[in-house]
Amino acid sequence: MSAPVPVLLLPAALVDPAWAGPAAIAAAAATPAWARLARRATPAGEAGPTGPSQDPGHERWLRRRFGLADDESLAAASAHADGARGAAWRLDLVHLHVGRDHLVMTDPAALPEADGVDARALADAVAPLFADDGLALEVPAPGRWYLRETDPARPLRLRTRPLAGALGRNIDAWMPTGDDARRWRRLVNEVQMTWYAHPVNARREAEGRPPFNSLWIEGRVPRAAGEAAVRVATRPRGAADAAPIRVEDAAGPLVVIDALLDAQLAGDPGRWAAAWRALDAGPLSEIAEARGDWSAGARIVLAGDAGWRAIDVPARAGWNVFRRRPDAAALLAEPREAAR
Predict the structure, then answer these.
(1) pTM, whole model, 2 decimals?
(2) Which of 3, 68, 159, 280: disulfide with 63, CB 3.0–4.6 Å?
(3) Which residues fall within 8 angstroms of residue 161, CB to CB, at 6 or more apart?
């Protein structure tokens, strides 16, 4: 039995031309390595939006890859790395600011992170609010918090949304829903009021740094998560020199490169175009030439705002006069149909 073909996942490879610009998309489609790969590619599955405010395409694909249940969050798999035993939910410290007519969340990866002392001080200030509601805060890492449900009669009944999907958008459409949505909104409002004049935030503002003025509940902690899922959930993001994350599980090797996603979340189309060119000169060129980790071929997963598309690329180009060749530009358009 042959070994699984390695997979390259590229979050935000599929972007809206209205954001990046049609010329940038056309230029990406024409880069040398990608043009070669498109001529050899065969479809390997795709998924488009199934409703409004769909979770980001890379989140949907990763959940499927790691076999997570519908109520489990990939990001919350970090609890297994942070030693948060018994944690039910992941929380993130966030900064909300007012857009034109709605609240927008700043990408936490772009914020100066709280240190352990500041995180502990903020947590101590609001821990009693959660305790009164049958919940306990855990802060094993400054940037990753968790909730335990301490009252079996009052578990949180929520459907949550990935933080990555809410970034840069009106957060109203991404707020938790479910039986306890109003309960959660009340708790968050109390947190916001408590932190409004907190000394930690007062100091941050005096130093010109955005305050931490809210919490985002990311999702339920998976009951079980393999090492690969945990490493992907805890991968660093946002740094200009962030290295690809490489993991392996029963499905084979997986490489995740977030450079395009970081550019999109920063709202910088020029940076996105530069990141694509770097990918074309790097891993896409290696795949096209069947070098290194890609000597046996590759599967490339291109993810977008809501959907994803997978293509298989053999190590050597085969010629079939009857095979319709995929269009390099069409492959960079987000699918518009439901998963199949």
Answers:
(1) 0.92
(2) 68
(3) 53, 55, 174, 175, 176, 219
| Closest alpha carbon to 60 in 307, 334, 336, 340 | 307
* Domain assignment of residue 340, yes or no: no
Q: Which of 201, 220, 239 is the last residue of a domain?
A: 220
Cα end-to-end distance, the chain, whole Å: 26
Q: Which two tokens stand for residue 45?
A: 């599955």
Q: Which of 221, 213, 211 is nearest to 126 (CA)?
A: 213
Under a CB-based contact definition with an 8 Å cutoff, are residues 104 and 95 in contact? no
pLDDT, tens digit (0-9, with 9 covering 90-100), for 248-272:
999 999 999 999 999 999 899 999 9
* Domain carrying residue 270: 7-68+225-332
The pLDDT tens digits for 160-212 are 989 988 887 888 888 999 999 999 999 999 999 999 999 999 999 999 999 99
Gap between the Cα atoms of 100 and 30, Å rounded: 37
- The rounded distance, in Å, linking the Cα atoms of 8 and 31 is 18
Q: Does residue 338 lie in a domain region? A: no
Q: Are strands 298-304 and 135-141 parallel, antiparallel or unpaired?
A: unpaired
- For residues 159 and 254, state if they share a domain: no
